[in-house]
Amino acid sequence: MPWNPTPERPAVPEAVRVSPSGIRGRLSPPPSKSAAHRALLCAALAGGGEVRGVLDSQDMQATVGALPALGALPSWKGETVALAPAAPPPGAPAVVDCGESGSTLRFLIPLFAAKGLPAVFTGRGRLPERPLGVYGDCLPPHGVALEGPGGGRSLPLRVSGRLRAGRFSLPGDVSSQFVTGLLLALPLCGGESEIVLTTPLESAAYVTMTVEAMARAGVRAERTPAGWRVPGGQRYRPHSETVEADWSQAAFLLAAGALGGEVRLTGLNPASSQGDREALALFRRFGASVEETAEGLICRRAPLHGIEIDASQIPDLVPVLAVTAALAEGTTRITGAARLRLKESDRLAAVAHCLRLLGGRVEEQADGLTIEGQARLPGGAAVPGCNDHRIVMSMAVAALGCEKPVTITDAGSVRKSWPSFFTDFQKIGGDVHGLEYR
Fold first, then answer.
1. Which residues of 148-170 are buried (b: 16+ CB within 10 A; e: fewer)?
2. Burial call 396-416: b when 16+ CB within 10 Å, e when fewer
3. Per-residue pLDDT at 220 exceeds 90
4. Distance separating alpha carbons of residues 417 and 122, to the nearest angstrom
5. Is 381 left (phi over 0), alpha (psi -120 to 50) or beta?
6. pLDDT at 8 over 70
């Protein structure tokens, strides 16, 4: 059955068949989900503002849906969310459904605590399995009670009390989202606070994005040798901003060009603080032809070769980099990616399993993958999408390097971050057929 969604809100089938095809076209990646989360929360804490470039994805719906309970009334039209001050609903603790968004959950817990707003946080999919122990260790000594499974370290999680300023020690290698949550919350406390990292910070660029978003809203956090100093008693300032395009999503398009022909990307900020901007250098290292022009980027197919990748700062790129490696001559080693086992799926296991089903040669390690590339993959198999948007999109790109079509289940999971992915993939030449709608 041909797949013909409407442009307003693309219907996403639960399974798709992607056939090998040539890629040629021009596309702008969607707005950055990570930047949009931060901009929305800064505007909500300011009691007003406007954020342009908020994609109607499931993760964004989770964050926007929580804002009334935080004291901000959102009005969402197209890709613009306007915020106005509103009193949080009185009565029982608010129930905050975070869906499957780890960012929503980990950013909001300390924000509700900083404002003294009791709440019960819920989620689904693998979100209840994702670790919250960092907050379980550092928040209770500062006036916050956490109640739930595992001693308040899992969902559903009841949060009460009011966050007090002080010294917060936490690891930097579990998730940068905990650091971001505290950075956003601590300016609202009465006194000065200090964040001290006990292990090296991974995904550090996401924290840089947070500090920059806070600065645009008139709030500051100062870097120290061990972490950050955050003055208390600050106020977020209402303002308007436009969310920049997403480099992590651009990586799928760069891979499509490198494997399938040519893609021209527009709208990306070459000076972005997004860590996934590293995709540009990585595809060049693979051997792809990547040209920067006044209009944007051009990525063309070229002979590819294996490389060494430390993914500790760019974990979201690993699935699509692994697909590229499977079609690059020689050996690629990806390390520093243990945290991927705690995402929407165990992404290391998932991408290794899917590539093997397509005929790829992949070995799995505790913190990464070793991949022996080949010119083409046999394909002709059904691979599980694992209810994981990045696995689904990566396998669609993998089909470009296969001899036979690839069937991908759980295709609807792209709603989490890029609902129009398959529509956009078709625009640049992707051959997509829907198999089943639900």
1. beeebbbbebebbebbbbbebeb
2. bbbbbbbeebbbbbbbbbbbb
3. yes
4. 19
5. beta
6. no
Nearest-angstrom CA–CA distance, 29 and 248: 9
Q: Kindly tell me if the per-residue pLDDT of 431 is higher than 50.
A: yes
For residue 34, pLDDT beyond 80: yes
Task: Answer for the pair 103, 59: CB distance below 8 angstroms, yes or no.
Answer: yes
Question: Which burial class, exposed, middle or buried, applies to 295 when counting CB atoms under 10 A from its CB (0-12, 13-18, 19+)?
Answer: exposed
Which residues are catalytic, by number? 316
The mean predicted confidence, pLDDT, of the chain is 95
Tokens 């991927």 correspond to 340
What pLDDT band is residue 167 in, cutting at 50, 70 and 90? very high
* Residue 189 structure tokens: 């406390």
Q: Are 243 and 37 in contact (CB under 8 A)?
A: no
Bond preceding residue 20 cis, omega within 30 of 0: no
For residue 17, which of 414, 418, 409, 420 has the smallest C-alpha distance? 409
pTM: 0.95
3-state SS string over the chain? CECCCCCCCCCCCCEEEEECCCEEEEECCCECHHHHHHHHHHHHHHCCEEEECCCCCHHHHHHHHHHHHHCEEEEEECCEEEEEECCCCCCCCEEEECCCCHHHHHHHHHHHHHCCCCEEEECCCCHHHCCCHHHHHHCHHHCEEEECHHHHCCCCEEEEECCCCCEEEECCCCCHHHHHHHHHHHHHCCCCEEEEECCCCCCHHHHHHHHHHHHHCCCCCEECCCEEEECCCCCCCCEEEECCECHHHHHHHHHHHHHHEEEEECCCCCCCCCHHHHHHHHHHHHCCEEEEECCEEEEECCCCECCEEECCCCHHHHHHHHHHHHCCEEEEEEECCHHHHHCCCCHHHHHHHHHHHCCCEEEEECCEEEEEECCCEEECCEECCCCCHHHHHHHHHHHHHEEECEEEECHHHHHHCCCCHHHHHHHCCCEEEEEECC
Contact 272, 247 (CB under 8 A): yes
pLDDT above 60: residue 9? no
